Amino acid sequence: MPHGKPAGIPCVQLRDDYACAIFGQPERPAVCRALRPSPSMCGRSRAEALAGLTALEQATAPH
Ligand code: SF4
Fold first, then answer.
1. Suppose 21 and one of 13, 34, 35, 46 were both cysteines; which one would form an S-S bond, judging by CB atoms 3.0 to 4.6 Å apart?
2. C-beta of 7 in contact with ligand 1 (< 6 A)
3. 33-60 exposure pattern, b = at least 16 Cβ within 10 A, e = fewer
């Protein structure tokens, strides 16, 4: 995504099975390689993870 990933829009590299299509490849962004998931980020389910991401996006959105 040459201009960055807008909030609320899935990454173009995200496959239908929620795996990264470029995992392990050099073109995978450095921020993705550096990210270390944690229970507080991922929650116990996809729904909890999305709720947390939504809260972060709203808290950091420009006004
Ligand atoms: S790891 Fe990075 S490149 Fe891969 S799907 Fe997630 S956001 Fe996209």
1. 13
2. no
3. eeeeeeeeeeeeeeeeeeeeeeeeeeee
Q: Does the C-beta of 22 come closer than 6 Å to ligand 1?
A: yes
pLDDT digit string, tens, across residues 26-52: 999 999 999 999 998 999 999 999 999
The span from the CA of 41 to the CA of 37, in Å, is: 6
Q: What predicted TM-score, i.e. pTM, was given to this entire model?
A: 0.79
Which residue, judged by its Cα, is nearest atom 7 of ligand 1? 11
Residue with the smallest CA separation from ligand 1 atom 4 is 20
pLDDT over 70 percentage in the chain: 100
